[in-house]
Each structure stands twice: as structure tokens, then as C-alpha cells.
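The freezer alarm interrupted the setup, so I double-checked each line after restarting. Inputs confirmed:
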Amino acid sequence: MPARPFNPALAALREQIAAMEGESAAAREVLPFGVPDLDRRLPGGGLALGCLHEVAGGGNGAVDGAAASCFAAGIAARLPGQVLWCVTQADLFAPGLEQAGLGPDRVIYVEAGDDVSVLACMEEGLRHGGLGAVVADVARLSMTASRRLHLAAKGSGTTGIALRRWRRQQEAYDFGQPTAAMTRWRISVLPSAPLPVPGLGRARWLIELIRARAGESLDIELEACDGTGHLGHPAVLADRPAQAVGA
Amino acid sequence: MLAGRVGNRRLVTAACAVAQELGLTVGMPVSKAQAMVPNLQVLPHDPQADAASLERLALWVLQRFSPIVTVDPPDGLVIDSTGADHLHGGEEAMLETLIGRLVMSGVTARAAVADTWGAAHALARHVADPMHVAAPGTTEALIAPLPLQALRLPPATLASLRTLGFVCIGDLLHQPRAPLTRRFGPDLCRRLDQALGHASEPIEPLRPSELVEVRRSFAEPIAAAETIARYIGKLVVQLCAALEERGLGARRLDLLCWRVDAHVQTVRVGLACPQRDPQRLTRLLCEKIETISPGYGIEILSLTAVMVEPLDARQMASSLLEAPAPDLSGLVDVLANRVGARGVYRMAPVASDVPERSVTRVAPLSDPVGAGWPDHWPRPTRLLARPEPIETLALLPDHPPVSITWRGIRRKVARADGPERVFGEWWKRDAEMIAVRDYFRIEDEAGERYWVFRAGDGENSETGSHRWFLHGVFG
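Predicted 3D structure, all chains:
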């Protein structure tokens, strides 16, 4: 799917809309993923900081949220400052997060009883302004709640990531409901590339950008976060000749 | 053994466990005890020191367990745990923690929870071994078989009751009250009613003079949330001024609301580091207003800094240096008071190969640990609270499974890596002396990656049951 050609009229319209929304597009900072194919599609060339983003797992990942939390940890790891992680069930394994780049000293966990208090804690973290990122495992995220979180994130410049995770796979249809989040991602696991010897290669994900405000959606197959939180091109693509990478 | 003077006789007033085993009892003349046990160590009884140390103990309980504590001389403490037990995981868990902490510091204690002070007093001294939790509403049945000493009566009354043939509390419960009152005075029936909960017995909370306390009484009882919030604000300003005078910062605050019907509602907030910033403290307290039930109105509000620590003015980093790290203590306090202090934590590594033991929770604002975990083996992002048994098809001794069935779904294993052998920690438990777990990373045909292990090394059945478990999910 080729990227749309740059249209000055559209860009002017976008700026006008951004001005009406009370945010100047130029002032917004972004966090590039370091994957040109992905960054080119995101408005501003990366993940917008100081916004709310939504991440969910595909398939069984909707229940265990393992790949999605790895993806969120990779983003949080590349942002400076402490990270607040709000959960309802404490099943995150800190050594696993460290292998996605997020060391134990950087994460403060909050174990709240239910979804409502998780959202309240997340909002509190976003409003504080001294954190690098706030991640929360939430199941239900209404338009009102997400709007509150988004405004809180915009006010302080802290990036919020709502990690959508449901008790049962059937409840994942909730992910189709509209929210105020800037982007919406679905991370599904894919079989890894076979190795010449018995063993497991680097995990591979299908990263779907389902929705991006002022951007286009996209499907891309990438390798999971490395020890610094960076995604990688699959080996077969990474070894293409230089001119092919730009295409 | 301690000896005290009662009248003109020297009697044994306390004896340690060893002495009691030798046949010494409290109330025995000292000369007789010395005759029974040569080389007996006799120390003089010092009631004032006893009272002082009991008060110290009460203060310790006040700081750690419940806002309303007082001493019950000569040898007891009364704790009103209403609204405080859930912070320690329920009544039973609270007693266990309390007794455990006391035993560790060398104090033998017995404790009971009951509906009333009188009943708890009786149960702690005559039933608890070393603890007893009475279900609500069972007071009468529980205290009926107890001896009369449990009623907190003067010795003269006890002796004459015994002469009349009364042995246990149950004998008294169904006697006509009028003759008893005429003979023994109002005390006996009052004690009975207090034990059964028919008469109220307020606990006057211990407030040692060194505690910083401010209080405000209202001519007209207050009940509205906004009014309470306004007066909390005023009290906090007073408290902070008092703290500043002494160079202290509060670590724990108790707000006691005395209602017109003599009930006390308590609010307790904790702080991660000493504070005396009125705004921050007011905010923490006001968030808890919804937990106060004002009933017919509140007539006294009192605010106490139960735990304080020295707080000196600090020099701020100048802007020439690198930007100071953001202060997260305010956020941590708000979150900790919302979800409970145990709900806010950071993870720190522990030197252990057993996955569930390799992490520990530390306070959210503790110093950075620096090092992480060794990273030569991949670790899952989600670890199940306890390993779940799975059905597998696998070759012994060291092959990964060919297929697994987890939560009723069968998955064929496409690729696998392992085993990573984890040995039991023989220095922790005897059962782990030769225990072994073999961990495998497996990937099914859809690409889902799991962390499974087999209990045992696959050859020797003493090393484990050879059953398979799923322990984590990789991202």
C-alpha cells in the first residue's frame, strides 16, 4: 500500500483543525519508532507524545496482553523518566519487562482493585506531569473516560498508554467502540522465522495501526522489542539492497 | 521472677515460663519460692516502669495498627480496630501480625477480637491461645462458661460471689438483677452489661503529650462534606504550624471525628516521606471524607500526627546544575491512600533462580537498586500467579513437549528451546533438597509463546512429580 502523496491543501486544512482543537501541530513532540515504514505513516513522523494511545493484543493476546505489554514497555522504555503502571491483577513479570528495555528502577506499579480505580490512578499519574509515561491495564474505556485521560495527558505532556485487556476473549469486541485516543494499535503474535538449528528466534509481531488521528491505518510485520525497546525489521527484509528499503 | 510487697508480705508478682515450670506461681510468698528453688533470681517489682512500658507498647500499636488504642492496666491494651483491620488483611491476619511482631521483640501476648471491650478482655485472658476471633453476635454464648475473674470485678466481690456458689459468668446471667445490685453495688451489673454490649464503654484514645494534636469542638454538630472539608483545612494549617515549630514532618495522620452519639469515626492517611505542606495534607484527608459517616453530626474533630520524622529545610538544586528529578512523593501519597500502601510498589531483583522468588516488592520511593536480572535467558512478560498444570505429550528425559493442552485448548508445538534447569533452594526447605524444574520456551503453530516446565529432571522420580506446568506467557 503506497503512502499518499503530500497534498499542501490537506496539510493546510489539518493545521486549521489543529488550531481549532487548541494544539499546534508544530509544537507536538513525537517519538519515532526507528522503523521508516512505520514512522512515515504516523503524523509527525512518530508516536505523538503527551497523548493517550490504546494498545490491545490480538487473539489470545486480548486476554493475556503479553505482546501488547511488551510493545507498551518498549515505548515507555524509550521515554525519559519514571513510568507508572496501573494494574488490576499483578501478573507482570519485571525481568520480562527489563528484557524489553524497561528496567526495574523505572517502573512504579499501582495495584488497584477495579477498572474504575485503575482509570482514576492513571488520570492522577497523567496530571502529575513528573512521569515519563503512564501505562494502565484497562478492560472498559468509555469515550468520557478516554477524553478525560487524553486531556490530562495533553495538559501535562505525559504520554498515556491504555493497555486494553479483557477477562474473556468475547469481550474484546469492545475495542471497536470509539475513544478519544490518538492512536489505536493491535499487536498479534506471528510464528517466528525458522532457525537453522533447533530453538526459538526473535519473536515476530503483526502490528496493526487500526486508527490514527490525522493519519492512515497500516499493517506491518515486525520483530519484537529488543533490549532497548526498539522494534526491528524481519531479517529477510533487513537484508534487502538499500534502494529497496526506501520503496 | 518479680517480687512485690502486698501489705506486709512479700509475694511473687510475676514469674517467667521457666519459673512456672519449676512450680512457682503468682501470689506465692517469696520465702517459700526461695525455699523451693535455690539460686532463684528475685527482682523487685516496679509498677511505674511496667505502666510506662505498657504505654510505650500502646504507642507502638497506635502508630502501626489502629488510631484508637489505650492501655488497660495492669497488663493489657484495648484496640478499637473498626475500620483498621482491613488494612492488615482482616481481623485474624491483623492479630497474627500483631502477635508475631510482639513475639519477635520478646513479648508473650494473647489477643482476642470481640464485639465489646468486656468480652474481648475476658476472651483474651481466658480463651485465647494465643489468639481468638469471636464471630459477631456470639458474645453471650462465648463468655458464659468463663470464670468470674473475667468480668473485671474487685477481689472482694469475687470472693463473696464465690461464697454464694457462683462459679462462671453464665450462672450470673439469668439471676434477678435487683438483689445482686443491692448486695454488690451497681458495679457488677454494669460490668455484665458492658461485656454483653447492653451498656456502652467508650475507649478514650491514648494521646501521649509528645504527639502533635489539634482539635476543634463545634457548638452545633456538623455533617455536610463541604463543612468537614473546610474544617479539615483549618486543622491542617494549625497542625503544620505546630510541626514547623518543632522541625518535624508528618508520616501518618489520624483524623478522629467524635459523633454526637459517642461513636468515633477515624480516617488515617500515610505519607511516603515526612511532609508538612498544608495543601498536600488537606488534599489527602479530603479525599477520604466519603468514608466518614457523620450520623447525627460530628461535634469534635481532632487531627493528630501519629508518626513524625524530622524534616529540615533542604537546598533546592540551582538551575545551573542538571534539571532536578521530578518529585513523585505527592503522587505516591495520593495513590497509596487511594489503593492502600501495599498497592504501590516497585520491583527489585532477588538473587534466586526460582522465577517467582526472583522479584520482591520495595517501597516506590526507595533508592534505585541499579542492577537488574541476568539476561542470558529470555523471560516472559506475564507470569501466572501459580503455575497451571497442563497435559503434554513429551519424550523423557530432556525433550520439549510435542503438544500441550492448557485450559482445555490443545496446541501443537512448532518450535521449542530448552531445557533451562532450575534447582530447588535446599537452604530454604528440606523438600527442595533435590527438587528440579526444567523450563522450556515453546512456540505453537500460531506463534504464541509459552514458558512451561516439568517438575523433576525426567529420570529420577525423587526430583519431582514429572508433571508439566505452564508458568508464563511471552510477548
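Quick read of the result. Chain A touches chain B through 59 residues (CB under 8 Å).
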